[in-house]
Amino acid sequence: MKRLRLYFLGVTVLITMVVPPNLLAGQRRRVVVRPTRVVVRRPVARTKLVVRKGHPIRRVLPTTVVVRPARHTVVVGAPLVYSAPLLWTPAVVAMPASDRLVWQDSEQIERDEGWVDSNFGIDSHGNALFLDLNGKARLSFGEVTFANGHVQVVDFNEQTHGSGLYKFLDFADGRNVKTVRIVAMSESDNTRMTVYLSK
């Protein structure tokens, strides 16, 4: 019996010397770490709102904005000339047929950003622009710049509008739209603005 005990003790010592410690620790309780969803927040950098000389809106505009540059840079070769502003009359409309849509892009704005200056580089030919809001947004003004340098300012008059597809600007003669700019503030946690150009 004594000999058997010495034998088991020797085997135990031998196992602890030969077997790597990480295998012996395999019996310990494992802690499972589950990945958590990480929300990446872009830093909010506010800057002074820039409007060029000749901008036709005379009321007080937002003083600071978060600027979102266009994803596609478009160069307007002609000098900019502002047309008289159009006071926007919001009307929810039906989406044009998909074969009539020639361009679209969207921007998401957050409530805590305040006023956001969103820019869209289009450089496509069409005859109407649409604005699709997913969420609630307060709209200040928009600018549509055409290839000939004419800029049509659309005055939203800082009114709040809910989700829906709205006619933004109609130019039935068909024109080359270079850029669209929209100054807006989300009044939902976030609002997605999508701009469409149709032919």
Strand-and-helix sequence, N→C? HHEEEEEEEEEE
Instruction: Give a count of the beta strands, DSSP E runs of length 2 or more.
Output: 10
Q: How much helix is in the residues?
A: 10-25%
Describe the sheet with the most strands. 10 strands, mixed
Mean pLDDT: 86
The structural domain count equals 1
Give the overall shape, derived from the CA principal axes: elongated
Distance between the termini: 98 Å
| Unreliable stretches covering 5 or more consecutive residues | none
Structure description:
This protein is mainly beta and 199 residues long. The protein has one domain (46-198). The protein has helices at 2-18, 21-24; strands at residues 46-48, 64-68, 81-82, 86-87, 101-110, 115-134, 137-146, 150-161, 164-186, 190-198. Strands 1, 2, 3, 4, 5, 6, 7, 8, 9 and 10 form a 10-stranded mixed beta sheet that branches. It is elongated and about 110 Å long.
